[in-house]
Amino acid sequence: MASFQARVPYVRPLRYLARPSQARVPSRSDPPVDRGKPMFSDERSRRVVFVSHCILNSNTRADGHAGVAGVNRRVLELLMQLNIGVAQMPCPELMCLGLDRGDVKGGERPVLLENTRIRAGMKSNRSAEVMDAMIAQVVAQVEQYVEHGFSVLGIIGINRSPSCGVDTTTVGNEEVKGEGVFIERLRTSLEAKGFYLNLAGTKVSQIDEALRSIRAMVEKSEATYAKAAGRALSSEFRDA
Ligand code: SF4
After folding, report:
1. Cα 182 to middle of ligand 1, angstroms
2. Rounded to 10 degrees, what is the CA torsion of 195, 200, 201, 204?
3. Are the C-beta atoms of residues 169 and 161 closer than 8 Å to each other?
């Protein structure tokens, strides 16, 4: 017997449907056509970045790895100054390994040793399944913003993290160049859909460098969107 597979059809919301074409040719004496207000022409900037969860909530960091009390204020202040919305991605290690990362004594190890143990946990098949479900949700959000003409100005990750590293990650008890397990998987999934987003890595202990990277990333992305749309740079970027 053929196996039944549940399918969820994609139904385009009615408000996005094109208006039916009018049969009669409009004449000059017709009253002006009310085309309605364009969508999203309210106060929003239509600019967004995706950030690693712990930039807005350091409570999710592995034991002994939190460098700020709650929010990375410097990163948030920069994004606020540029009127960029902040989309918080889920924390992959929290969802795959738990808050204790599967070892309540993990915080007693040196950071690079613990990161190496965590990386091994994030490479398991189960972690891959959990991450793929999370990634599908992030990709769907990016897709929606892009489909509606918003500027997705990039992804901000956490350098040295075995999961969210952008420029550096931890492998074999060392901080090395390369991406964390989650970021690599996310980037690959986005690229498979045709989304080539810019990325910036951050580290609390090198915050000035991190802010420079973020600023360079958002300026580059904003310039690309502005050029593609044939519009001027937004005022926040002209004045930056
Ligand atoms: S770096 Fe990534 S995995 Fe680690 S705490 Fe932050 S969001 Fe979670």
Report:
1. 9
2. -140
3. yes
Query: Model-level pTM?
Result: 0.86
Check if the beta carbon of residue 85 is closer than 8 Å to that of residue 42. no
Question: What atom of ligand 1 comes closest to residue 93's alpha carbon?
Answer: 3
Secondary element (H or E) of residue 177: strand 174-177
Q: Is 159 in the pocket of ligand 1 (CB under 6 A)?
A: no
Q: What is the pLDDT of residues 103-142, one digit of tens each?
A: 999 999 999 999 999 999 999 999 999 999 999 999 999 9
As separate numbers, helices (DSSP H) first and strands (DSSP E) second, the chain gives 7, 6
How many angstroms separate the alpha carbon of residue 62 from the centre of ligand 1? 8
Give nearest CA residue, ligand 1 atom 5: 61
The Cβ of residue 2 has, within 10 Å, a number of other Cβ atoms equal to 4
